[in-house]
Amino acid sequence: EDWVEPSRKPDWGREISTQTGAPAPLEGSLAANLSALSCLSPIGKLSPIAHTSPIGRGSPIGRGFPLRDRAFGALSPRFIGVEHIDIDVTEDEEPQSPIESPTRGVGVGVGTDSGMLQLQPVRLLDSYVEAETVARIGAQRAHFSHQLGLLSEQVTGIAERSGWTQQELSRKATSHNLQLVQAHSKSGEEIALLKKELRRLQEENKRLLQAVMSSATVEVENLQAENERLKRQIDDQERIVGAHQRMAEKYKALGNTAALGLSMNTSDTPSPTKGLTPDDLSAGSSSYYTKTLQLLEENYSLASENSRLSEERRKMADKLARIEAEAAEGKSKEEDLQQLQALKEENRNLAQQCYHLIKAEATQSQTHKQEIAMLERKRLDMQVELAAAVSQMNGLVKAGVDDASDDNSEVTVAWEEARRNKDKLNAERTQHEEAKEALRQAQTEIEELQEALAKAKRVSRSPRAASDVVARHLYLSVVNDNQRLAEDNAQLKRASKQQKATVSQLEMENGRLVLEMQDSRHVDRGRTSSLEDQVRLLKDKLSESNRLRREEAAAAKYSVERFSSTKEAYEEQLSKLRRDYSDLCGEV
């Protein structure tokens, strides 16, 4: 009874698994027993899955299934009819079957003449179910409940992760769609700009085509007028040549007459030259002959000019005929557009080259200005260093040997100052190895000076008279050197002014070139110049810009060379002052 009654039956799955629904009541003890037995068979294990979901019920073992749904079809869940049990019932003996005697309830009757045979409910628990089997079934239920809980957690985690991934994908898709919309709008704006630029270029092409056609018409008219002028000029030249030929023949006849008269001067025959001396006749004949030669040379030159003009007239006539033929036949629009595009491209390239040259010149002029300012600052720094060195030398000369301690301190200060100056020069001009070597020599000389002063301390004599003479000589040399340095500085200033003037001139020239380039078409005597003239003008401007750039580079090179020479002069002056200082200290 403990194992059969539903109210006292232990729930193996409730203590382990998380079940939400209440178990369905069993319909009788026999149904519970057969349900437990069906879980042990392969068919019974599958039957709970076919009817109730274990996730919804919370238990892996099916419960609450009627007996008729499992094994016995539509039979009653409580009673089994006699016709389904093979027993032999007699009046004299008890039924020989494993079924126990009935104890309670109402049985199923079998119809007889005397009455109803009463059969009690059958209990099969003690015969078919043992406690060990029930315990094993409970353990399996607990294990299945635990596995179901783990699977539920995994399903929940997978659902959460899939939901997060779906959110992330949705966010990325939204961002991507926004980017696509922005790109579409941007591409639409770019397409609008390109269409606008296309319309502008088409209008420009139409305008240039009209300009080319009008310029071609004007050129044809100009060539016709030039042809007429050349015709008139050739006719004039032919008349002049004829006149000169007649004059040459006239002078030739006069020369012959003069020669004949000279030969007949001694005879008595009257002649136009009678009474003239041979010298007069000879002089007149030579002058006539000279004039005749001059006229012949003039005639030859005029004939050459005539032939050249005739050739030019022929070329112009050929060109005019070709232009007229082209105008008559009509050149194709494609060729006109190609030529126009080529001219525009060449014009654009030349303008771009001019712009780059102007920009490069402006950058280079700015660089030159900065270099000039840097050179000026370095020159001032070197002047300050030179003045400091001269003042230190003058202080050491005036001090003498009496103040030995002061001399030693001043030498120490001078030594430290020289070291600082050396570090500064090495940091500023690392590329000048000669300056480094000179500074190292100066350090050695100062160390020798310290040794000489240390020796002079031990000598107790006063060379003030000699030091006065040496100081005066040093003062005069320093004054002369300062004058020379002042002249060099003035010359450097003049060079800087010249460089500034060159830079300003280049800037003005660049501005003029920019203004000229802005005028894309030039009007001369009411006629528009051709594109070939514009291209030639731009080429001339480009060559002029190149020339100005070369001049600017030469001026910059001259300024750099001038600064180098001035720097070398400063370094030479500094080394001379150091040598004088060393000599003075040696005398001291």
From TrEMBL:
Coiled-coil region list: 184-247, 306-378, 415-509, 560-587
Domain of life: Eukaryota
Skewed-composition ranges (Polar residues): 263-274
Chain intervals for the UniProt region annotation (Disordered): 1-25, 263-283
Biased composition (Basic and acidic residues): 1-14
Keywords attached to this entry: Coiled coil
TM helices/strands, residue ranges: none
Keyword match Coiled coil: yes
Protein name: Uncharacterized protein
Natural source organism: Eutreptiella gymnastica
